[in-house]
Amino acid sequence: WLKLFGPSVRYFLKFRGSSVPMPPRRTWGEMVWPPEAPLWLVISGNISLTMFACCFLLLVVPKRFLFKRFLRKARAKLVSSLRRMVFLSSQGPFFRLFAWCGRRCSCGYLASRCRPPQSVKVKATRLGEVMMFWSPQLPMNPFHEEFYVIEWGRVGASTWNEMAVRESGSKDQDRWKTTLSSLPEMTYIRVRVRALNRHGPSSWSDEVSVLTLVKPNDDGGFIGPLGSAGDLCKTQTYHWAQIRGDINLKIPIPDGCKGKDIKFKALPSRLEVSYLGSPPLLEPQPLLVGLLSKRITKADDVFWEIQTDDKIGRHIAVTLQKSEATEKWASVMDDDNHPRVDLSYVRVFTGEESITDMTEMYE
User: What is the average pLDDT across 245-253?
Assistant: First the structure.
């Protein structure tokens, strides 16, 4: 030990005046290849030291100074390997126990400052309920902990309703999710989220909005808004219903409108119903134009005619055939402005129900 490390101890610790005899200083060649050390130990030590020095230089040297392509690729691979090593280490039981003890003993003081969540998404799932997803921006701190505060409100309103989310069964891998309930139906809701711990809250995430679901009528359908031509009709909403295999639409039209004044075009995934006018207008005014929420059969199977109803007035009765007879439709048009119904309230006869079930359904 004195022969190998004696000069270093004397140099760093100023170990002078000691009774322990110190060998003379060694040259660089003797330090790289000590004559007393075995050959295999010297070679392995030099290789390890060289690899450590190269890795250290690849990490600390700025990326703009790495002119060679293979150096940039080596740096990227090294960083990826280090991240993988840290990730695998964090999954072990000893690391988790160490992190858990540190979080409990520090009472949150060792946590880092929170950053706002990102990739916030929201989806209407049931009547009065929406599911919210987001990705946290967690630091490389094993003792970091945070919980989240969610606020929701009506679009256009200045008031917010607050809800706290903790770590009890809400985490799904790298994403978090929670359910907001007791929401008004057929209402545009905006939501936002932020992280919070002992160091204080983060800034709010970006706001996202969604239209909540609505309870369908007895026919499994609902109403929807018309296009610009709806101002000329008795009502500005169309009605739709669904049964096994068919979608029935009632689209209002202006009084005195005839079949030649209507432009009707049906495709497997698109529906176009426009009012041409009498006399003809410069541009057709849309009544119901857009993509369908689900596919229908070929256009030859689409049937429509003009009818008159005391409630709706003069309208077009359209029958669309579903591509899947037992499939449930949440809405006719694939548009956020058209309300979507809660499919759990929709019951379509599939041929497997008994006569008793059908009698109860019609009662």
Answer: 91
